[in-house]
Amino acid sequence: MTKITYEIVEHDGGWAYKVDGVFSETFKSHDLARKAAEHAAKEQVVAGDTTGITYEDKSGKWHEEVAKGDDRPEPDVKG
After folding, report:
1. Nearest 5°: CA angle at 60, between 55 and 66?
2. Pairing of β 22-23 and β 74-78
3. Which of 3, 21, 32, 47 is the 20 to 30 Å CA partner of 78?
4. How far apart are CA 42 and CA 76, in angstroms?
5. 8: buried, middle or exposed (CB in 10 Å: 19+, 13-18, 0-12)?
6. In this structure, are residues 15 and 9 in contact, taking their beta carbons and an 8 Å threshold?
7. What is the pLDDT of residues 12-50, one digit of tens each?
8. Residue 72 reports pLDDT greater than 80
9. Mean of pLDDT values over 68-72
10. How buried is residue 37: exposed, middle or buried, by Cβ count under 10 Å (0-12/13-18/19+)?
11. pTM
12. Side-chain half-sphere of 78: how many Cα atoms within 13 Å?
């Protein structure tokens, strides 16, 4: 199972969560950023449908693959 970590960090004059080098929107407080990260982490474990996905990685390269609806990551929130 893939592990995914949501890290709470100071960002752009406020707080955000960061996953694999990508920042969320900026929140006014650490608590709001943590609550948003916890909500996003809970969404990660919800099973869905097997479907094709397209995404851009942090280097700007686009990928296409099939995502199995029951292959969910194990999320963690730090900070």
Report:
1. 20
2. unpaired
3. 47
4. 10
5. buried
6. yes
7. 999 999 998 999 999 999 999 999 999 999 988 888 888
8. no
9. 78
10. buried
11. 0.70
12. 7
Count of all residues that appear for the chain in the document: 79
> What tokens appear for 48 in the block?
């869905």
8 forms beta bridges with 17
Query: Which structural domain range is residue 70 located in?
Result: 3-78
Amino acid type, 55: Y
User: 46-65, pLDDT tens digit by residue?
Assistant: 888 888 989 888 898 999 99
SS3 43: helix
Nearest to 36, CA basis, from 3, 8, 55 = 8
Residue 66 structure tokens: 């099939």
Look at the chain and report how many structural domains it folds into. Answer: 1
